[in-house]
Every structure is written in structure tokens, then in C-alpha cells.
């Protein structure tokens, strides 16, 4: 194992490193949050803005406006946000910075389906002594309200034309549409009034430090990239497993969406892009998005036959998780007792391009699994071990082929880091090859907590950098991949049975069979390396 000591020889101790140049947002702005009474605003957006403010990333002048239906005044909303920050902040909350931050917050009562509300909002925002002219609209609303809000922004004259000296940007939360057709329609609506560069489609996975590191790791090192192809890689496994179920009323949203819309169409396919895409010509939003779209378009389509063979859907049953009884999916709060919405999904994907043809990509994600882990594991081909089999051995240790292939694991969360499994001779008088792990851990190397995904993404919107957001053709390419699966599972339920699995397991047996058929097995991501 590569020890922490070795890692520190290679790079200076944290206190000795040259500080990075600041990348704060310079231009004053007004951030308008539609859906201000929602969970996302409380858990992520406002605590994220507070952290950016406290750490000096925001300009001197900014105002945050919460917009929702409930009748509240500014002070009542501030009190709610103070509570949310205290409860959810990643950083320590100091009362003086909190008080000045809260002073920047306002509230606006609005019925999101009434055009008049948007005109009133525009009138309010036109007072630039309180509301700086640049406008950021964050759409943290239910999917069915997306279009009415975009329409309202238009009819209320809240948006500036692209050539205006003042900027207006619209941030759209996921889910972006419900299927390909609705995503296309939503893109059309947005792009009728806005330029692509004004629209920021969020996938919070892209804001995670370790996910961003995929590009640096692949393209800033000489030793890995030449091996990332069909000549050396046996297969790739992408796992995003969660232990949570349908707590806090999430069942209502989830049962209507299912795991493919909730996790695969966005987070897992983004991870697929990052591990599979070609190197961009430059690190600009355009160049990176171009490469992602190329990769997505090379995915071999899921035909009905392939869905039967290569896609598994599952639901957790009731049972024990960490010794505590938990309900089965169908018994969860706000879930239809006859639901056959998938809470788990495993896919065998193929990418039909020169780099990856013949290399399966296995993706899996689900709720109530054995542990919360997100990782990408690139398993290389098994080397010819004949060499070792011919070595003579004495005594009872004659198994010389315990070596497993090299596996490069990107651990995205928790215990963020990268490890490489290699074969080495076990110390002994005879030749025995064993697996050892070389490891780089973020915590060991940089000794600091990683920023929250939303902090990075919000700052990027203010700075006008769309690299970590999803472009319109990208989001449509993603929907094109999963649409046939949704169509099959939701339109022909009987033909695609849903498999049960025990809470705290790694998913249904059918998902194991998906790999066994190819002579492979899922990794156990509980064991690092
Ligand atoms: C969200 C999904 O996008 O991602 C949730 O809607 C899921 O269902 C969450 O739990 C997982 O995010 P993270 O950052 O905890 O891995």
C-alpha cells in the first residue's frame, strides 16, 4: 500500500502549499429562489449560499429572494432560513456572519401559475438599490411547475436579452423532464427566450470534488489514459448505492419517478461520461460537453430484447437494516401498495466506439442497500499467469495464481480517494502472488473537508461558468438512452418482472446473474481497493 508518508513526500504539507488564487463572484446579483419553502432550499441552497458568503466568495452587494405561495413576511422567512442554516450548514455558524447574511434575504409571496405574480416580482426587482440588476433564477420547483415558471419569467419581463450588459441566468433543478419528449419540450421553452449560455441544468454529482477529479486524473497523468480502452480494460463497474429508503415523505416524489429517472438518467450517466469520454481539446464547457455527447451517442441502444437480458429492476422487501426493522418499498409512506416502481436498477451497457467496443459497463444503483458508496471501478484484463503456474513450490503452498487483475477504483464517496489493486509477491520462501492496494486518500493528503457540491455549482453560476452543468443536447442524449427502458418497464409491466431484495443486501440475485453470465461478479465496495 502506498503509505501516507509516501504521498506527503510527493506533495508539500498543506500549510506549506501556495494558496490558490481566489475565484469569487465579482458582479453584484439578486438570486431568486422559486420553491423557497421546499426541502432543497432548506437543506442545500441557503446553507450553501451562507457558506459561500462566510468564506468570502460572494460580492459585496447581493440579495437573495425566496419565492413561494405561503404568506410570510421577510422576517419570518429569515427566521426559517436561520434555522435551516444552523441545522444543515457544513461549516461552523457564527452568529455575527449569520445576522449580516440574513439581512440580505427577502421574501416574495407568489402563485407560480399566475402571470400577475411575475409582473409584481419584476416591479419589486426593478428597485436596484435593494436588488442588484443581475438576476439568477433558481427553479427548485416540482417538474410540473417548470414550464409555468419559465413562461412566467417571460411574461413578467424578468429576463434580459443575451446582449444586455446585465445578466439573467436560469438554474433548473433535476429532474429535467420526465422522458425524452418532455425534456425536448422543456428545452424548447427555455431556449425560445434564453440563450443556451443562460441556462444551467443542475446535476449535483458534477459539483462533487471527486467527480470533477475524474478529468484531472484521466487526462493529467500519462500512466492511466493509454490503458483506458478495449485492449486493456476487461469491464467497468459504476455503483451508487444508498442505505436510505423513503424517509421524510420522499415516497410521493420517488414512487412517481423511480430510480431510472431519479439516479440513472442523470448521476450514473454523468459518471459513465467521465470515465468513458475522449479527452476534450480544452477545458471549456463547450469542449467537455461535446465529448460527453459523443460518448452518449455511442451507447448501444436498449432494444426490448436487450432490456430483458441486460436490465434488472428491483424493490426492497421489509427486513432488518443494521439490526433495525425497516418497511419494504411498497409499505413506505406515500408509496402505492401495488407499486412496481423500481427502487433498484442494474444495467449492462455497451459503448459501440473504437475505444470501448466489447467492454461492458455495469451500472447499479438502489435504495436500502448494504452501504452508502459511490465508486467507479475499472477492471483491467487478467495478465497471463502461466508464468507463475510453472514455478515449483514445496510444502502445502502450491496455489500460485491467487492474483487478481488490476482494478483502478475511484471512490467518490465516502472515504474519497483512488486506489489501484496490483499483484505482488507475498513474503515467503516460495513464490505466491497476492493482491495489494496502492491508495491515495483526499483526507490523508489535503486534511480538509471537501466543499459541498451545491456551493461549487452556485458559485459557478454566478461566475457564468457552465462546465459543470448539462447542455440541452446532453440531457436529451441521456434521456434517449433510458427512454426505451422506461417505456418497457412502465408500458409492458408483465414482460419485465420486478425482483425483490433484502434491505442491507447488494440488490437482487438477478443483478448478480447479469455479471455471472459474463463470467464476472460485482465488487463488494465495502472492502476498499
Ligand atoms: C438525488 C436523488 O439527486 O441524489 C436522491 O434525488 C438521492 O434520491 C441523492 O438520494 C443522492 O445524492 P448523494 O449526494 O447523497 O449521493
Helix content range: 25-40%
Distance between the termini: 10 Å
pLDDT averaged over residues:
91
According to CATH, what is the class of the largest domain? Alpha Beta
Shape: globular
Strand content: 15-25%
Which value, in Å, is the CA radius of gyration? 25 Å
Largest sheet: 9 strands, mixed
User: What's the number of extended β-strand segments?
Assistant: 17
Q: Could you tell me which ligands this complex binds, including any ions or cofactors? A: 6-O-phosphono-beta-D-glucopyranose
Strand order, biggest sheet?
16-15-14-13-7-12-11-8-17
Structure description:
- The chain is of the alpha/beta class and 529 residues long.
- It has helices at residues 4-10, 39-54, 74-88, 95-102, 115-125, 143-155, 180-193, 209-219, 251-276, 285-297, 304-310, 386-389, 442-446, 453-463, 472-491, 509-516; strands at residues 29-34, 62-68, 105-109, 135-139, 168-172, 199-201, 233-241, 311-316, 319-321, 324-326, 344-349, 361-366, 373-380, 407-413, 417-425, 433-441, 499-501.
- Helices cover 36% and strands 19% of the residues.
- The longest helix is centred in the middle third of the chain and has 26 residues, at 251-276.
- The strands form three sheets. Strands 16-15-14-13-7-12-11-8-17 form a nine-stranded mixed β-sheet, sandwiched between helices. A six-stranded parallel β-sheet has the order 3-2-1-4-5-6.
- It is globular and about 85 Å long.
- Bound molecules: 6-O-phosphono-beta-D-glucopyranose.
- 6-O-phosphono-beta-D-glucopyranose binds next to loops.
- The site of 6-O-phosphono-beta-D-glucopyranose has 4 residues, from loops.
Amino acid at each position: 500500500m502506498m503509505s501516507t508518508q509516501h504521498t506527503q513526500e510527493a506533495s508539500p504539507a498543506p500549510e506549506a502549499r501556495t494558496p490558490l488564487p481566489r475565484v469569487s463572484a465579482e458582479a453584484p446579483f439578486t438570486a431568486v429562489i422559486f420553491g423557497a419553502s421546499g426541502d432543497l432550499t432548506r437543506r442545500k441552497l441557503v446553507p450553501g449560499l451562507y457558506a459561500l458568503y462566510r468564506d468570502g466568495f460572494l460580492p459585496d452587494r447581493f440579495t437573495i429572494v425566496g419565492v413561494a405561495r405561503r404568506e410570510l413576511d421577510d422576517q419570518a422567512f429569515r427566521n426559517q432560513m436561520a434555522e435551516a442554516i444552523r441545522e444543515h450548514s457544513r461549516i461552523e455558524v457564527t452568529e455575527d456572519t449569520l445576522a449580516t447574511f440574513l439581512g440580505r434575504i427577502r421574501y416574495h409571496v407568489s402563485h407560480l401559475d399566475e402571470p400577475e405574480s411575475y409582473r409584481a416580482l419584476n416591479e419589486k426587482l426593478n428597485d436596484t438599490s435593494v436588488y442588484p440588476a443581475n438576476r439568477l433564477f433558481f427553479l427548485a420547483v416540482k417538474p410540473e411547475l417548470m414550464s409555468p415558471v419559465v413562461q412566467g419569467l417571460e411574461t413578467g419581463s424578468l429576463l434580459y436579452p443575451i446582449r444586455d450588459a446585465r445578466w439573467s441566468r436560469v438554474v433548473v433543478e433535476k429532474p429535467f423532464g420526465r422522458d425524452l419528449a418532455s425534456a425536448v419540450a422543456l428545452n424548447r421553452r427555455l431556449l425560445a427566450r434564453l440563450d443556451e449560455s443562460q441556462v444551467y441544468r443542475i446535476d449535483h454529482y458534477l459539483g462533487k470534488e471527486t467527480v470533477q477529479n475524474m478529468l484531472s486524473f484521466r487526462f493529467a497523468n500519462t500512466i492511466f489514459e493509454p490503458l483506458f480502452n478495449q485492449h486493456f480494460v476487461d469491464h467497468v463497474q459504476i455503483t451508487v448505492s444508498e442505505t436510505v429508503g423513503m424517509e421524510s415523505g420522499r415516497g410521493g416524489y420517488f414512487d412517481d419517478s423511480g430510480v431510472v429517472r431519479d439516479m440513472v438518467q442523470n448521476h450514473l450517466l454523468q459518471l459513465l461520461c467521465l470515465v468513458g469520454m475522449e479527452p476534450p481539446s480544452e477545458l471549456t464547457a463547450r469542449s467537455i460537453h461535446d465529448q460527453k455527447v459523443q460518448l452518449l451517442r455511442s451507447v448501444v441502444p436498449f432494444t426490448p430484447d436487450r432490456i430483458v437480458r441486460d436490465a434488472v429492476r428491483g424493490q426492497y422487501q421489509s427486513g432488518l437494516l443494521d439490526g433495525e426493522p425497516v418497511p419494504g418499498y411498497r409499505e413506505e409512506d406515500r408509496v402505492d401498495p401495488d407499486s412496481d416502481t423500481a427502487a433498484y436498477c442494474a444495467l449492462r451497457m455497451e459503448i459501440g466506439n473504437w475505444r470501448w467496443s466489447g467492454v461492458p459497463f455495469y451500472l447499479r444503483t438502489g435504495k436500502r442497500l448494504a452501504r452508502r458508496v459511490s465508486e467507479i471501478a475499472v477492471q483491467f484484463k487478467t495478465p497471463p499467469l502461466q508464468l507463475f503456474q510453472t514455478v515449483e513450490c514445496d510444502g502445502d503452498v502450491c496455489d500460485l495464481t491467487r492474483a487478481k487483475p488490476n482494478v483502478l477504483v475511484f471512490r467518490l464517496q465516502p472515504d474519497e480517494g483512488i486506489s489501484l489493486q496490483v499483484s505482488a509477491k507475498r513474503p515467503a520462501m516460495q513464490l505466491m502472488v497476492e493482491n495489494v492496494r496502492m491508495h491515495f486518500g483526499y483526507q490523508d493528503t489535503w486534511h480538509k473537508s471537501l466543499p459541498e457540491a451545491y456551493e461549487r455549482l452556485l458559485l459557478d453560476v454566478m461566475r457564468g461558468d457552465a462546465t459543470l452543468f448539462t447542455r440541452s443536447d446532453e440531457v436529451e442524449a441521456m434521456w434517449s438512452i433510458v427512454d426505451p427502458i422506461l417505456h418497457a418497464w412502465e408500458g409492458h409491466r408483465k414482460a419485465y418482472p420486478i425482483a425483490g431484495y433484502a434491505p442491507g443486501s447488494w440488490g437482487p440475485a438477478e443483478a448478480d446473474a447479469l455479471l455471472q453470465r459474463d463470467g464476472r461478479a460485482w465488487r463488494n465496495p465495502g472492502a476498499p481497493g
